[in-house]
Design brief:
Layout lengths: L10 E6 L10 H9 L2 E4 L17 E4 L5 H13 L3 E6 L9 H10 L4 E4 L4 H8 L13 E5 L12 H5 L4 E5 L5 H8 L8 E6 L7 E6 L3 H7 L6 E5 L1 H7 L22
Parallel strand pairs: 1-4, 1-5, 2-3, 2-4, 6-7
Antiparallel strand pairs: 7-10, 8-9, 8-10
Helix pairs in contact: 6-7
Bound molecules: S-adenosylmethionine (SAM).
Pathway: Cofactor biosynthesis; adenosylcobalamin biosynthesis
GO molecular function: precorrin-4 C11-methyltransferase activity
Protein name: Precorrin-4 C(11)-methyltransferase
């Protein structure tokens, strides 16, 4: 889809709405919402506050109760009528958003799409904690994953094997099987590894707990967390919240020379 200046051509724009706070939309996402004739949004995860940017004349269609077979004709008929359609997805559309199946079927109907990235839930969790998840010499990898539940995770990606890396691990869609997830993580992370539990981050009723891994399941159960919960398990959290980490990056070291700071 080619844009002419800031005027969108009719088509479907998949826009990452971020975790909830409307101020965490990208400028491009906000502009597209303003220009949309039809906004199809996942109301279970995208708060209505995001729709404040929509034109008064825009048609806003919640999709939590709809099937793919019901959602697609809505988008296709709107595009065929020359309307600008925005499909609002929570967080970033590259993660657990089911955009692939929508894009494939839109393509079969001859409709092009553009995807606008958004801020994912794990990024807001890290920001709330003022945490860097990649501390030099401590942890340099971030794993984004989910526990195996109704949607099966490939065997090679079972939590117990991912845990062996002791990376910063962000666990989506897993509140319903948190007990088993905790057990699998304990196979490799020490029990006192800090876990941030974020509930509805960026929503008015946001909550964030910082607990040892050994209490991840019990706190989740006490708080009755079953959905919209993100777990962030990382050695970096203790280094920033318990024992101050003294390491530093090469990037800003006086001994380290590079293209922009030759000797
Ligand atoms: C269907 S996935 C969508 C993920 C989304 N695309 C993203 O990048 O954040 C829904 C899961 O993402 C996480 N999630 C999404 N929004 C969240 C929020 N505001 N607070 C906490 N977790 C959230 C939860 O794990 C939830 O079960």
């Amino acid at each position: 889809m080619v844009e002419n200046g800031t005027q969108p051509k009719a088509g479907v724009y998949f826009v990452g709405a971020g975790p909830g706070d409307p101020e965490l939309l990208t400028l491009k996402g906000q502009r597209l919402i303003q220009q949309a004739d039809v906004i199809v949004y996942a109301d279970s995860l995208v708060p209505s506050g995001i729709l404040q940017f929509a034109a008064a004349t825009a048609t806003c269609i919640p999709t939590a109760a709809l099937t793919l077979e019901e959602i697609l004709p809505l988008m296709i008929s709107a595009v065929e009528a020359g309307k600008v359609v925005v499909r609002l997805q929570s967080g970033d559309p590259s993660l657990y958003s089911a955009i692939h199946e929508q894009i494939q079927r839109l393509a079969a109907a001859g409709i092009e799409v553009e995807v606008v990235p958004g801020i994912s839930a794990y990024q807001l969790a890290a920001a709330r904690l003022k945490a860097e998840l990649t501390l030099p010499e401590l942890v340099q990898t971030i794993i984004l994953t989910r526990a195996s539940g109704r949607t099966r995770v490939p065997a090679a990606e079972e939590l117990a094997s991912l845990a062996a890396h002791q990376a910063s691990l962000c666990l989506y869609l897993s509140a319903n099987c948190v007990q088993r997830a905790q057990q699998q993580l304990l196979a490799h992370y020490p029990p006192d590894t800090l876990v941030a539990i974020g509930y509805r981050l960026g929503w008015p009723d946001e909550q964030l707990w910082l607990v040892p891994l050994s209490e991840m399941a019990s706190v989740s159960q006490q708080q009755r967390l079953t959905r919209t919960t993100l777990y962030l398990i990382s050695p970096a959290l203790a280094a920033q919240h318990v024992t101050p980490f003294q390491g530093r990056s090469c990037l800003y070291s006086p001994e380290h020379h590079h293209l922009f700071r030759p000797d």
